[in-house]
Amino acid sequence: MRVFKNFIFLLVIVFGCHNNKKAVVVDKTTKEESFTVIQTKYAELLKISPSEIGNLNLYNFIDKWIGVKYKYGGTTFDGVDCSGFANILYKEVYKTVLPRSSQDIAKELKNTSKDKLSEGDILLFDIDGKKNSHVGIYLANNKFVHSSTSKGVIISSLELPYYQKSFSKAGKL
Q: Residues 16-63: pLDDT tens digits?
């Protein structure tokens, strides 16, 4: 018993003499504040009003994936291809499973004209002469999110000549 008391005494001395207080960082950001940051960030990027950012879950999802590199056949943060990214986005944000390939997505698409696009519409492109070989998701103000082979997950403009030339069709499932 005496050995145990001496051990406890030793512990009190060793740990009592050191300031073991660790800085605890408490994130006091509320969910609402977090969404406001996302709204502001993407409203500026899309050049729209923050109130026009409708689906906060969509933009929160995009925020996590922006910058992930392109990897053919990929479906993870280690690398993702365009249809893999569209699939994950649709599953997590819209609770809908898309066909895996852009060609199969094209078969099930209910066409929408380019001037009537709305947030979440699927966009298909003919790249390098291959019909419906690239897929993206429309956001707002002629901007869309996709996984590009050169830059990974990015937001691009439909007004860029490359995407104007290669645009194939758009719509919903």
A: 433 333 333 434 455 556 668 999 999 999 999 999 998 999 999 999
Half-sphere exposure of residue 78, counting CA atoms within 13 Å on the CB side? 2
Q: Which positions are annotated as active-site residues?
A: 82, 134, 146
Q: pTM for the whole thing?
A: 0.80
Q: Which amino acid makes up residue 94?
A: Y
Cα(22)–Cα(20) distance, integer angstroms: 6
**Separation of alpha carbons 123 and 102, rounded Å:** 10
Assess contact for 118 and 98: CB atoms under 8 A: no
* Structural contact between residues 102 and 170, judged by C-beta atoms closer than 8 angstroms: no
Q: Which residues sit opposite 134 in a β-bridge? A: 125
End-to-end Cα, the chain, rounded Å: 75
Strands of the sheet containing 167-172, edge to edge, are 110-112, 167-172, 122-127, 130-140, 143-148, 152-157
Rounded to 5 degrees, what angle do the CA atoms 114, 125, 103 make? 115
